[in-house]
Amino acid sequence: MASKAAARATGERYLAAFRAAGAVEIAPDLLQPAEALLDLYGEDIRARAYVTADPLRGEIMLRPDFTVPVVQEHMANGAEPARYCYLGEVFRKQDHRGASRVSEYNQVGYEVFDRADPEAADAEVFALIAGALAPLGLNATIGDIGILSAAVEGLDTIPERKAALARHIWRPQRFHKLMARYAGLVPAPETRAAVLAGGRSDAPWIGMRAPAEMEERIARLTRDAEAAPIATADVARLDALFALRCPAIEAPARLRALDLPAIEAATERLERRLSALDKRGVDLSALTFDASHGRTTMEYYDGFVFTLSAADPALPPVASGGRYDALTRVLGQGREIPAVGGVIRPGLVADLEGLA
């Protein structure tokens, strides 16, 4: 494993390249307020972040990534358009599956905030990072969370079901369990059936929720129980979409063959992105499109996503990134701007260069 000094020196090399591409260097604090991250991700992030308390600042986290603080800084003070770069340590707990991975490592990144041409900005970020890493011969995979979101929004079902499915796009097991229930392939939980049947109507209200809130919850459950099942053919089309993996150059045609009209606009955006990548010299025949790419690891991305990975599947991605327009809306307090970025793990690069 590369030393901290070697990782830092490697990171400085990429940081210089990002500055040369027009980015302004930014240095977010190592300690970040926990409130914004908890609001974004819920309590799930506690399992991955190092959380502590400060007598004056309240609950804080060791920086789990750079994207959130960079967005906060830009939305508060940044001009438009803007390009930022950064280098520093991030901290993430590892579970038993990642026991061999480090919990503290460097990231060097490049972020673009630009309204003019989002697909061109996607191509700019990917081409810059992929070009810098080209000597390593990495495997490149792209996806688009926006295509999945559009497919869910296009389902012929009630808004509550669409909202629930949209929330769980990043949790594949939960998503597909919901789809099976909404399609009538599995029954609703017995406890839900008892509530809807009125079996607990005389029970006292328990807990922090007010009676009116609980009544609204029961009303939503009733609407769900009365809704028609999602058509089996629609479930099959979504399953085929989520399973789609092909050379990127084939992706638009393969997506249209699924007969999902709701994804046409997103497919057209993909075509524009591929054209922009081609113009920047990216070999589309060597690029893999995976429709489900990023579903378990890229929670705040809502459009284009990518990773560059070494041949060894045990290693984490050498680089990753994507589009996070929705995050700027959440953190912008009424303002928003299209944004895309990516990061490289310079310590991993140093390791791979040492093996070459």
UniProtKB/TrEMBL annotation:
It holds the Pfam family tRNA-synt_His. NCBIfam families: PRK12295.1-5. Residues 18-346 form the Aminoacyl-transfer RNA synthetases class-II family profile domain. The keyword Glycosyltransferase applies. Keywords: Glycosyltransferase, Transferase. InterPro entries: aa-tRNA-synth_II (IPR006195), aa-tRNA-synth_II/BPL/LPL (IPR045864), HisRS-like_core (IPR041715), HisRS/HisZ (IPR004516). This is Histidine--tRNA ligase.
